[in-house]
Write a structure and sequence with these properties.
Elements lengths: L1 H13 L20 E2 H4 L4 E3 L4 E5 L2 E6 L7 E8 L18 E8 L2 E6 L4 E2 L4 H10 L3 E11 L6 E4 L10 H9 L9 E2 L5 E7 L3 E11 L5 E2 L2 E2 L3 E11 L20 E6 L9 E5 L1 E2 L10 E2 L4 E5 L8 H9 L2 H5 L3 E2 L2 E5 L14 E6 L8 E7 L5 E10 L10 H4 L11 H25 L6 H23 L14 H4 L2 H7 L30 H11 L8 H12 L36 H17 L1 H4 L8 H19 L8 E3 L13 E3 L2 H16 L8 H4 L27 H16 L2 H13 L8 H13 L12 H19 L7 H22 L6 H19 L8
Parallel strand pairs: 1-9, 8-17, 19-26, 20-22, 21-23, 21-24, 24-26
Antiparallel strand pairs: 2-3, 3-4, 4-10, 5-6, 5-16, 6-7, 7-9, 9-10, 11-13, 12-13, 13-16, 14-15, 17-18, 25-26, 27-28
Helix pairs in contact: 5-9, 8-16, 14-16, 17-21, 19-22, 21-23, 22-23, 22-24, 23-24
Length: about 850
């Protein structure tokens, strides 16, 4: 949601214009002008609501009262159907809300998105300057087709909603591949029609059934591919809250709320013009002086399509938040009701918050919260939660990770992260079942039901937190000790992390350890604190500015690990932006390196026990293949975590002048970085890092099915009948090395010498030295006979990486890194020469070393002109 607000801000500044050709109705023409209302609606269907919706001759029209002209309404868009996954997902998480305005100009209605991101509260001259300076975004100019002389009502053509206002073209471009024009889809206006429309007292729904076409002539098994797909986009126009009835709250970067940013021109005295309002529900107590019921409780309705066996787990996840509101004196803040057996009740009515169940064919599991907010204040006026059925159906979906070793990352968008979160939780749930069975504690009966119910509750309590405006909190796993998360009594009361907004992993420990609760199903200390900070009424404060001092005082608890916050922007390790290893997904305890080591031991133990447990009698070997892949993905997840410490620095969000606060940056100690690298060496880079049982690998096959001619989508075999383990782990290891040796990481490591005493933290030379030792130390072994397949591949890859850094460095690569790369190439050349002198080498190892010698020699002997900078 946070990035969405900034996109909206940019959109307002850019005054994006959408070219729309309005379609005139037969009832009027440019010459005759608008038709009389009574004549126009003859034979038409009229739906009464916030606006009257008129349907006639396949077209849709909006009827406005004169008082609704030049009035701002809230408009959002939600995707109703999708591709069963593939990133085109129902639920509206790719949309954002904005204001929409209808202005009459002669016999036309000008439809605009007003620019609401520039404000000047209490300063009328500045408000006039804003109005004169910043342009609104043009949506459409639509003809007025009818007017009512009695009440002044007017009717205009709403055909502009059939255009791609939703910007689905950009989404489809990402799905099909930006570099593949043969698969590009475009909107087909001739086959785009209005779907259902609805009118309610506070909102109207206009459904556009958009046909997207491609000219791709390819076929599969003589069956044409889908060259025209119909997507349903529901446009929602809602009554905006009356300004002044809700007081916004100014956000603070030490507390994790989504925010709506503005540029404030009311005063030039502030350090920055940027003001951020918290996104939250209007949860006022009926009596601020004592505990009392909420004036506007968050009431969720469970849709009737949710399977009965899952409703109690969902209800529990939502109602868990009542405990936090009760602590600040707001009772019955959250309520859950079943969808009423009433034909007039409709989940599209904006007066209702809903939780709905959806099904996909290849989504792999998904849960998301989709809000509608007032972009002028950040007030949330409606939300819903969507849960994909796959989150509760464990099957072999890990091919999405394994076919491409670097797949499975969280992506850049909020939607992508939530999808990856659900997918990873599904994988961990299946791993947990496999691991417990291997350890002699298989889940069955009531224990299995509880395990699955708690998994679903953990999804819902997380998404419900987004419904109150809370961001992710990826530092909240760092507060508890291993002993605490191993205690069932402790985790049942406090959770496995301090916040349900963390991406907490399955809390499972190897045999011999105590065991806490598996999933995060209860609020943690941070969650109580965040609700207090965001929703507690502040006595005497009548403006957002009047609250700031109190809010600042509350936020000064950030140094306490129980109340720390850090979100998505601090977890971007793949591009070397993230630097604080405390901020991460899928880790636990205040010693994440020990957690990683325990998980790697656990996965190794489970891997060795697969053959004794799977497949069960009468089942195919698909069962063991699935168990193996779940275990392998968990292994890879744990093995990826130690890299976060390389070149790491602890970041403090605390404001200046707070007693006991640490400096904004404190370098990770060299001893911890070496400890992290030793895990990377042992479990990723070393020759013995990847050791699998040949018997197990020979059992990992899948069942073949003859494809049915009209259901070819279901037949998608992998190129190989086995699992390409070597390819997977080589790609994973190369990805880890790529992360550590990218220019920004090399630059940061080089600069640490300016900020820390020599030897206090890791240096650029350490990175090259440690990696060199990990990959090539075996060449110095006088008893060397052979080198494993994965290790040979990594030696070849890294030699080429050194050559690239030396001869063709990527922009931003420091000179020091180039110098070290050359020095390490010299060292590899000498070590290879020594190793080739040993007569005990097997044929493949000798061939490999001769090839490696050639790669290194060519790099060192290359002659090139070095241009002046």
């Amino acid at each position: 949601m946070k990035h969405v607000a900034y996109l909206a801000l940019v959109a307002m500044v850019a005054a994006l214009a959408l070219p729309v050709t309005a379609r005139a109705d037969d009832a009027s023409s440019p010459d005759s002008g608008p038709a009389p209302y009574a004549k126009f609606i003859t034979g038409a269907q009229v739906q009464n609501g916030l606006f009257n919706i008129i349907r006639k001759s396949g077209k849709l029209y909006i009827e406005l009262d004169p008082s609704q002209l030049d009035t701002d309404f809230i408009q959002s868009a939600e995707q109703i159907n999708g591709l069963g996954g593939w990133g085109v997902i129902p639920g509206g998480i790719t949309a954002w809300t904005r204001m929409i305005r209808f202005t009459r100009n002669g016999d036309k209605i000008v439809v605009t998105w007003p620019n609401t991101y520039f404000i000047a509260p209490g300063n009328e001259p500045a408000q006039r300057a804003i109005k004169q300076t910043f342009a609104n975004s043009m949506v459409a100019v639509a003809p007025v087709v009818a007017t009512d002389a009695g009440n002044g009502h007017l009717v205009f053509d709403a055909s502009f909603f059939l255009t791609d206002i939703y910007n689905l073209a950009a989404v489809l471009k990402q799905v099909t591949g930006a570099d593949n024009p043969d698969q590009a889809y475009s909107l087909d206006p001739d086959r785009t029609l209005f779907g259902p429309s609805k009118a309610f007292p506070q909102n109207v729904i206009i459904d556009a059934d958009q046909t997207w076409k491609t000219d791709n002539p390819q076929t599969v098994d003589n069956v044409p591919d889908p060259r025209a797909i119909q997507f349903r986009i529901a446009y929602n126009i809602a009554q905006a809250p009356k300004l002044g009835e809700y007081m916004p709250r100014i956000a603070d970067d030490r507390v994790g709320y989504f925010d709506s940013p503005y540029l404030d021109f009311a005063s030039d005295a502030n350090y920055t013009r940027i003001t951020r309002y918290v996104v939250r529900w209007d949860m006022q107590p009926s009596d601020p002086t004592k505990p009392s019921r909420a004036l506007h409780p968050m009431v969720y309705y469970l849709a009737d399509n949710i399977p009965v066996q899952y409703r109690e787990a969902i209800r529990k996840g939502v109602l868990a938040w009542n405990a936090a509101f009760a602590k600040i004196g707001i009772e019955d803040a959250v309520q859950v009701k079943d969808q009423p057996d009433d034909p007039n009740w409709d989940p599209d009515d904006i007066r209702y918050n809903t939780i709905i169940w959806m099904t996909e064919s290849n989504g792999g599991g998904y849960a998301a919260e989709s809000p509608v907010i007032d972009p002028r204040t950040g007030q949330m006026i409606r939300t819903n939660i969507v849960v994909d059925a796959d989150v509760m159906q464990f099957s072999n979906i890990s091919w999405q990770f394994l076919t491409e070793p670097t797949a499975g990352g969280a992506g850049n968008s909020f939607a992508a992260r939530e999808h990856a979160y659900a997918l990873q939780r599904r994988l961990q749930a299946e791993f947990g079942e496999a691991a417990l069975a291997t350890m002699g504690h298989p889940l069955a009966g009531a224990a299995l039901t509880q395990y699955n119910d708690d998994l679903l509750t953990s999804f819902v309590v997380h998404e419900a937190g987004h419904g109150f405006g809370l961001q992710h909190n990826f530092i909240s796993s760092m507060a508890y000790t291993a002993k605490q998360v191993q205690s069932h009594a402790f985790t049942a009361r406090n959770g496995v992390a301090t916040s349900v907004m963390e991406y907490s992993p399955l809390n499972l420990w190897p045999k011999g350890y105590s065991q806490g609760t598996y999933w995060q199903t209860v609020l943690g200390p941070y969650d109580y604190y965040a609700i207090h900070w965001g929703y507690m009424p502040i006595a005497g404060a009548t403006t957002p500015q009047a609250e700031r001092q109190t809010l600042n005082n509350w936020a000064q608890v950030w140094p306490n690990p129980l109340y720390r916050f850090a979100s998505d922007e601090d977890t971007s390790y793949a591009d070397a932006h993230a630097i604080d290893p405390r901020v991460a997904m899928w880790d636990l305890t205040n010693d994440p390196l020990s957690w990683d080591g325990a998980q790697l031991k656990l996965t190794s133990d489970v891997m060795r026990g697969l053959d004794s447990r799977w497949p069960q009698p009468g089942r195919t070997y698909d069962q063991e293949r699935a168990a193996f892949t779940f275990v392998l993905v968990t292994w890879l997840t744990s093995a990826a975590q130690p890299e976060h410490f390389i070149g790491g620095e602890y970041v403090s969000r605390q404001a200046a002048g707070v007693a006991g606060a640490s400096p904004p940056l404190v370098q990770v100690s060299r001893s911890d970085e070496l400890r992290a690298f030793n895990l990377i060496d042992r479990y990723i880079l070393a020759d013995g890092a990847w050791s699998f049982s040949p018997a197990t690998l020979n059992r990992l096959v899948y069942s073949e099915w003859e494809p049915f001619v009209n259901a070819t989508w279901a037949y998608a075999p992998q190129p190989r009948h086995d699992i390409p383990v070597a390819e997977i782990v080589e790609g994973f290891a190369e990805n880890q090395l790529t992360t550590m040796f990218q220019p920004l990481m090399l630059e940061r490591l080089d600069d640490l010498s300016l900020k820390a005493k020599p030897g206090a933290t890791m240096s650029l030379a350490d990175l090259f030295d440690w990696t060199q030792r990990s990959l090539y130390s075996d060449l110095s072994n006088p008893k060397l006979q052979s080198i494993g397949e994965v290790h040979r591949a990594l030696q070849q890859w890294y030699a080429r990486k050194l050559a690239q850094v030396w001869l063709a460095p990527a922009p931003g690569t420091p000179y020091d890194a180039q110098s070290l790369a050359r020095a390490k190439l010299v060292a590899v050349r000498d070590d290879v020469k020594t190793a080739l002198g040993r007569p005990s080498l097997d044929e493949l190892t000798r061939a490999h070393l001769q090839s490696l010698q050639d790669v290194v020699s060519r790099a060192l002997e290359t002659r090139q002109v070095v241009p002046a900078q």
